[in-house]
Amino acid sequence: MKENKLVDLSMDFSVKIIKLCENIKGHHSLVNQLERSATSIGANIHEANYAHGKADFIAKLQISLKECYETEYWLELFIKSDIIEKNIVADLYNECGTIRRILIASINTAKENANG
């Protein structure tokens, strides 16, 4: 998958998370954590496109991957805490998983290309 597709997916995901967070009442510190981790995914993917070499590129994608895992955690916490209904975030959770899987594949490919 082209990196631009990943940039687009992560940007769309970030926008959806921002819109979701605008509608959550209270829990400001938790909402802030969700917003920060979710938007960091795309920011680091975007930054990877301007990396200073293969190692920097891989490092930026790995940061994005960590942020995906963190975002999934916050979404799960919001569901289990009854802050958000599961049906409201199910698609977002799936989108985050899709981005995560693409990042894993991209990181693995970049590492193979760096070694080969």
What does this molecule look like?
With 116 residues, the chain is an all-alpha fold. The chain has a single domain, classed as de novo design (two linked rop proteins) (Up-down Bundle), CATH 1.20.1440.60. 84% of the residues lie in helices and 0% in strands. It contains four helices and no strands. Helix 1 runs antiparallel to helix 4. It starts with a helix and ends with a helix. The model has no long low-confidence stretch (mean pLDDT 94).
Look up the CATH topology. Answer: de novo design (two linked rop proteins)
How many helices in DSSP terms? 4
Order of helices and strands: HHHH
Nearest-angstrom radius of gyration? 15 Å
Low-confidence stretches: none
Query: Strand share of the residues?
Result: under 5%
Main beta sheet: strand number and arrangement? none
Distance between the termini: 20 Å
Task: Please tally the β strands and state the result.
Answer: 0
Chain-averaged pLDDT? 94
Give the overall silhouette: elongated
